[in-house]
Amino acid sequence: MHRDSEQSISARLRERLKEARRVFVLTGAGVSAESGVPTFRGGGGTAVWKGMPFSVISSAEMVEQDLLEVWAWFDYRRGIVGRAQPNPAHLTLARWQDLFAEYTLATQNIDGLHQRSGSRNVLELHGSIWRARCLRCAARKDLRTKDTGERPPKCPLCGGDMRPDVVLFGEVLPADVFARAEEAARQCDICFVIGTSAIVYPAAMLPEMARGAGAFLVEINPEATPLSAICHESLRGRAGDLLPLLDRFVVQPTVGSQSEAASETR
To answer: In the CATH hierarchy, which fold is given to the domain comprising 47-83+132-166?
Structure first.
């Protein structure tokens, strides 16, 4: 089975992986879904929380109207996400951070599974379900270590009410995080888009930027997406199955090549 699966990886993709020095990865809900994390979005206005659709309960307007209900919703979500475990896709991507001269992992997911698998410096485009942010002074608090259970949580700096530190409907992505992702996308020589529908903007712009700057664009998704048409390679299947296969063609750098790569980026 492994031999047949490996044959599905084209020769040009294998070669690109061996030569890659600057890699940019964008992951979406599909990667977490393989760990059992629901997307929660529903469809067609389907109610997901006490009669409210996802676009209502997860909106900036709801924070203003009923902050306590927003916390009830996100506490429920944390209860589900907290039971999920990183899958082989998360683990492979964590391993890659030490195999390329430059490596950037950006995610649309808010569940923290990349970090739990060992990934460092993850660019969380949509924030984190495990953090709270003060509505008054924007200070942040880690809910995994400093959650007293008070709702809404109180800011440790100014005493103001805090909200989930995630990007909600009606809000923009954090500019500094997106800028770092954009820079990495424009400078990479190979870009992976994994488990994302490629319809949520502006995150969906990142692979387009990479492609426009000359990167080799690879999509991993069970189904075709709007991005498929511009990809050099579109691999159909589960990320947890395909990424470990691709990992076999990534060359372990030597100490000398790592030093050389470091000097080139100075």
So the answer is: SIR2/SIRT2 'Small Domain' (3.30.1600)
pLDDT at 115: 98
Phi, psi of 126 (to 5 degrees): -110, 15
CA distances to 23, 73, 139, 254 from 124, in Å = 17, 20, 17, 30
Q: Would you state the structure tokens that stand for residue 7, as one six-digit string?
A: 């044959």
Question: Active-site residues: which are they?
Answer: 126
DSSP SS3 for 143:
helix
pLDDT tens digit sequence for 196-205:
988 888 999 9
Question: Rounded to an integer, what distance in angstroms lies between the CA atom of residue 204 and that of residue 189?
Answer: 18
Name the superfamily (CATH) of residues 2-37+86-126+173-264: TPP-binding domain (3.40.50.1220)
CA distance readout (Å), 99 to 1, 54, 103, 205, 212: 26, 38, 8, 26, 25
The pLDDT tens digits for 210-228 are: 999 999 999 999 999 999 9
Instruction: Tell me whether the omega of the peptide bond preceding residue 244 falls within 30 degrees of 0, making it cis.
Output: no
